[in-house]
Amino acid sequence: METLDLAPMIRAAGTVRLPGSKSISNRVLLLAALADGQTRVHDLLQSDDTERMLDALRTLGVPWQHDVAADCFVVDGVAGRFPVADADLFLGNAGTAFRPLTAALALSGGNYRLSGVPRMHERPIGDLVDALSQLGAAVTYTGNPGYPPLTIGKGTIRAGGTVSVRGDVSSQFLTALLMAAPLTGVAVHIEVVGELISKPYIEITLNLMARFGVQVEREGWQRFTVPGGACYRSPGDIHVEGDASSASYFLAAGAMGGGPVRVEGVGRNSIQGDVRFAEALEQLGVQITMGEHWIEASAPASGRLKAFDMDLNHIPDAAMTLAVMAVRCDGPCHLRNIASWRVKETDRIAAMATELRKIGVEVEEFDDSLRVTPPQTLRHAAIDTYDDHRMAMCFSLVTLAGTGVTINDPACVNKTFPGYFDAYRSIASPVPVVAIDGPSASGKGTVAARVAESLGYHYLDSGSLYRLVALATIRGGVTDDAAIAAVAETLPAEFVGGKILLSGADVTDAIRSEECAAMASKVAAIPAVRDALLERQRAYRQAPGLVAEGRDMGSVIFPDASSKFFLTASVEARAQRRYKQLMEKGLPANIDSLSQELSERDARDAARSVAPLKKLPDAVLVETSDMTVDEAVRFVAERIA
Ligand SMILES: Nc1ncnc2c1ncn2[C@@H]1O[C@H](COP(=O)(O)OP(=O)(O)OP(=O)(O)O)[C@@H](O)[C@H]1O
Ligand SMILES: Nc1ccn([C@@H]2O[C@H](COP(=O)(O)O)[C@@H](O)[C@H]2O)c(=O)n1
């Protein structure tokens, strides 16, 4: 499985042009296909879900083409009659393609078989099929009753009457029914059973149907009438708005990372309900400004995101973004009325709770709500994404809350936002790292500590971790690689006020012995030991920045470090320095054996198979044989990017 490591971010600011809305794109494609006349669709979302719809339309004989020069999709409408009356359609996990096509095909008098990925076959469709049956459609379940896959036959459409459909599971059932109703040629009265959820999505449907010439009458949100004889007519050109749900990640980034972050493509005039995410952000104290076609978010003036308790039924998709923002709020947050999350790409309530817990968040999960209590500190985790684009996009925001994350299967964002992570990285700046690598006694530690102090950055002496593993190994009499890796995994080390503790005992001087150094370079050659210490080292990357020294800081631990240096000196100079250092501490030393030990250790560090000591092409060489400490510090400080 592919994974993506995201570093902790220190700020977010900039502008992002949003891809087209998925909800609008797939509705427009179907309406353009059913309409009389040619429609030129501009700014269409190009993603997995729209590809499923385009593939299905081609299979059904609807002529369309991508006019690359004009940057639009041209659909030749079939005036309500699909040319291909017998077909198999595979619709992946695209609910916005599966539900409306089921309804349109059920009322179009052909024989069709519709299927999707395994998760699509777990997403309920029974309420829509029941409603279609009331109209006389012939839809049968090929697998489990109430779920795809489906077989659609030629039904006998009944004239007049009222169809009832449940509105409290997925608003897509009502959308599908509304969009397909004109194919019957007769007036269709639809009554919604139960409280209609996600009403803004129905507004999108009604708005787009009107753009294609069909006006639906509605009484509140319970009763809808599609007039008899209504036919779709192409509006000619139609523009797809930017995706308001996708906007939520960038607005959240502006709120969490200082901002301002501006999204272009949605704004005050949007027909998408998820623009109301901006109002939710205002309740957290976020500063929002809006134009006709843009929205901008900056951190609260107070610097603190306010805890919230909100009914989020009207913005179910964007609400997921709030669940991750909650980890940075100033108290427990409650996301209410989100039961529809359970029947989306995955059970999003369960998935969100599981993954938030992995990064150290306390989460209470209820049938239709989630309570999130922000922790003092977050920890790195590998986030499972459940083939759900929104899980992947949401969890990228954790990087603005103080920790890096690994996103498993990042390509799942292709469902709605191919290129999401590039867009995210274009507005989010990683916590800066100065990586200083080099051989023993070259002066890395001395220089790194001084540079860190002058910048006000954190400091990582990575060699001390290997020395601690070595000491614990020597003391415990551990010899085999797996057991040494287990020591590294659970290393009971603490760094307190300049002292280094192992299981609570002060080992600051003990780990500096040459015996420990030699053993350190042996345990450091064990790949499992290096793996065990990887995240522990990365956790030092915290605002405002880090200076890290060792052998693989620039190559493995922080390959994206903003500045990389390779500090070295002749063996003679280094042996002299170490000799002086030991003498000052009152420890016995012999210059010849020190020189030999340093050479052997460097040779072992340079020859090992994993993370060997070497100068990287992008590291600045600092030859310190003839430099004083002050000169070496100045040399490095002047070259920090
Ligand atoms: N440019 C320099 N000129 C003279 N002495 C130096 C210079 N840089 C460092 N030293 C001295 O050399 C000694 C070893 O330096 P330091 O411990 O920083 O090296 P290191 O590369 O971190 O070593 P190790 O890898 O073994 O931890 C220290 O006493 C330090 O003061
Ligand atoms: N990033 C690192 C740092 C250290 N090592 C190994 O630990 C030994 C001791 O390191 P010092 O910097 O404290 O001298 C060193 O010889 C290396 O073998 C490492 O592998 N990677």
Ligands, deduplicated:
adenosine-5'-triphosphate, the ligand Nc1ccn([C@@H]2O[C@H](COP(=O)(O)O)[C@@H](O)[C@H]2O)c(=O)n1
Number of domains: 4
Biggest β-sheet: strands ordered side by side in the sheet: 16-17-15-2-24
Radius of gyration: 31 Å
Contiguous helical run count = 21
Query: Which homologous superfamily in CATH is the superfamily of the largest domain?
Result: Enolpyruvate transferase domain
**Structural class based on helices, strands and sheet pairing:** alpha/beta
Kindly report how far apart the N and C termini lie. Answer: 34 Å
Shape call: elongated
CATH class of the largest domain: Alpha Beta
The CATH architecture of the largest domain comes to: Alpha-beta prism
β-sheet strand percentage: 15-25%
User: How many β-strands, per DSSP?
Assistant: 32
Low-confidence stretches: none
Query: Roughly how much helix do the residues carry, as a percent range?
Result: 25-40%
CATH fold description of the largest domain: UDP-n-acetylglucosamine1-carboxyvinyl-transferase, Chain
Main pleated-sheet profile:
5 strands, mixed
Mean pLDDT: 96
Function: Catalyzes the transfer of the enolpyruvyl moiety of phosphoenolpyruvate (PEP) to the 5-hydroxyl of shikimate-3-phosphate (S3P) to produce enolpyruvyl shikimate-3-phosphate and inorganic phosphate.
Domain Enolpyruvate transferase: 12-422
Catalytic activity: dCMP + ATP = dCDP + ADP; CMP + ATP = CDP + ADP; 3-phosphoshikimate + phosphoenolpyruvate = 5-O-(1-carboxyvinyl)-3-phosphoshikimate + phosphate
GO cellular component, one term: cytoplasm
